[in-house]
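Example for tutorial group B:
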């Protein structure tokens, strides 16, 4: 871990022990109190990316194997079974389950299988000088989102920060 990561870890521990106040979403708006602090660095890394013996390679929606991988990893990151299925459908709608795709380039780029928007989540901003996902200790650079496990952990961090899947423009289609 780099020195900035160590410093950020210590800062998150100190801030997390007394409560975390996030920065306002819009200038002039009030910060909101977050009721719980989740430490993303302790999410267990799956031991294998192979489908367990006897398990289906894809879920009931017949998603391609790379999308099925998202639905398999999602519960390990804290998503429920229903949320995991939605996340798999979001992966299909966002990227057709391509893990190394960059989309939405005209708006700064969205990365990986879940098309996580770089300028919002993994690049420097006025609220998160090192990037939100870097400050949450999920990744080091946006290219880390090419790894499905990192993408799922990032999705969980975003889900907790925003209170749901609404940052993905394909969410409504994923649940319909």
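The residue assignment follows.
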């Amino acid at each position: 871990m780099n020195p900035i990561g160590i410093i950020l870890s210590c800062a998150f521990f100190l801030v997390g022990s007394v409560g975390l106040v996030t920065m306002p979403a819009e200038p002039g708006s009030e910060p909101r109190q977050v009721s719980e602090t989740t430490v993303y660095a302790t999410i267990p890394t799956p031991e294998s990316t192979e489908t367990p013996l006897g398990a289906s390679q894809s879920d009931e929606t017949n998603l391609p194997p790379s999308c099925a991988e998202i639905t398999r990893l999602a519960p390990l990151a804290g998503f429920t079974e229903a949320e995991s299925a939605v996340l798999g459908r979001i992966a299909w709608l966002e990227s057709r389950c391509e893990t190394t795709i960059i989309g939405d380039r005209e708006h700064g780029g969205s990365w990986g299988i879940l098309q996580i928007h770089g300028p919002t989540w993994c690049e420097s901003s006025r609220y998160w000088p090192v990037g939100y996902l870097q400050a949450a200790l999920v990744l080091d650079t946006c290219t880390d989102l090419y790894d499905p496990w990192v993408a799922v952990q990032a999705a969980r961090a975003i889900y907790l920060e925003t209170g749901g899947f609404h940052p993905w423009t394909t969410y409504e289609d994923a649940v319909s």
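Residues 20 and 34 are 6 Å apart (CA to CA). Compare this with the pattern of hydrophobic and polar residues in the output above.
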